[in-house]
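To close the chapter, one final illustration. This time we ask the reader to focus less on the individual chains and more on the assembly as a whole: which components sit near each other, and how the overall shape emerges from the parts.
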Amino acid sequence: MTSELYQKNLLKLASMATNAGRLPSPDATFTLDNPLCGDRVTFDLTFLETKILDIAHEVKGCVLCQASASMLASNATGESVKDIKSVREKVRKMLEDPDSVIEGWEEIQFFKPASEHKSRHNCVLLPFDALIRAAEDGVAEIG
Amino acid sequence: MIQQFDLSSIRKNFPILNKPIHNSLELHYLDNAATSQTPEIVQNVMREHDSTHRANVKRGVHHLAEKATDAYESSRRRVATYLNANKVEEIIFTSGTTGGINLLANCFGATLSPGDEIIISILEHHSNFVPWQMLRDRAGIVLKILPATEDGKVDVSKLDKLLTPRCRLISVTHASNVTGAITNLEKIVSAAKSVNALVAIDGAQMAPHGPIDVQSLGVDFYMFSAHKMFGPSGVGVLWGREEILNRLPPFMGGGEMIKNVTPDKTTYADIPARFEAGTPPITQAVGLEAAIAWIQTINLQMAELHMESLANRALDGLQDINKNTSSIQVLGPERNSNRLPVLSFSVRGAHPHDICQILDSRGVALRGGHHCAQPYMDSLGLTGTTRASIALYNNTNDIDAFLTGLDEALNILSND
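The assembled structure is written out below.
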């Protein structure tokens, strides 16, 4: 039900907008749009070797998109591209099968009710994809 | 036949409106600008055709082929009447408005030279934007874009700035799927004629509102989709003036559109067959005829007054909600002016998808996003809006459910 989707935890996560904004001198930046709905996510990253050191994001999007970006900003520091991809896969699996047991970041569970709404899955995954693209570009740049 | 407007009786024609959604909720369908519902008569006619007259058209000599062809051509004649076309041959069946505009962009585009100019507007649906960009990119056409006025109309006052003797076509919407604003076609046609340019009209939103008189409009091409006017998806119409269509080369090649094919050369059929390659959407065309026939049983003047009243009820309600929030901006012209009952609005701090999702949980079907009008949205600094679009079968319950649901949605999303 939609009332479960817009639960207080998710709304709070979205409104926290952890690390919202831009970094002054990012090592990598990537902007990704969802052409179906017009949502737009930009991630700025800096790296320490191949791990994310600092992160900021700008989101023009729905609550799910904002909350997902906020979750990433809260947890991605110290992670590698591989780690982020692994979390994305967990989130994707949970969206497709809400009964699957997912371990990891605490906030992932807030998105479970979105599993019933296929048209919103991309709203949750868009920030992951933008972050992954930024991280891949950044790591490639570092060499 | 005396045309009636009995809302209760009209709604009974649409079984889907009386079926609960999410197991128990009454449906309030306010996404008619995206697609309308089909009355039972249209569904029955299509089923009847498929169960008694289904066959391919035009080529066969057996009984079913002749019956199918009769039904298909009967639809063409009905459409010609609906548009007041001079000749039945001017009616080309397409896959929809998008198919029609692409057909035009390719066929008419093939007659243009690099440096020729086409004017569209910033308000256009992507279907009347992208095909012309594609023509620009492959054929060196200059594409010029009319701005919108502050109240969401095509700004015809800027035509003089864009028009030159190289203009070959002005292609604009009859009414915006975002703002509901009805375009001043008189000014468009007059401007086009001054430089011997042609006029093409995207009639997708306007065609459901009653017969279109292409002669009095003075336009040269008119496109619309069946699924937005109580008909099936998969079929639409491109109307064009006979003398213009006769000059155009075909776009798609294949069966039906030929006179003679040899290994070396093919000659093409006359209109409209020249532009209807392959097996057409036969059953869908039959459904379109049934939809038009159904529309013609309705007292459309009373239907328009009914829809205007519902739109005003919605606008009043939005104003009331806004007294508490001051966060709602409604796009489009003032009420009761030249506009359709298509109500798009933005809410500061609330994304259209979140609003639509919560309204869905209350049984209200809205649309959220850019509505395939990204250039216009970008010009407003918006990624999208929420849109409620009214059809003649909507009632006050639908509007009230929309307003109540919106109020609740904004409370939920305010996160206070």
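The mean pLDDT of chain A is 91. The beta strands of chain A are 28-33, 40-48, 51-60. With these observations in hand, you are ready for the problems at the end of the chapter.
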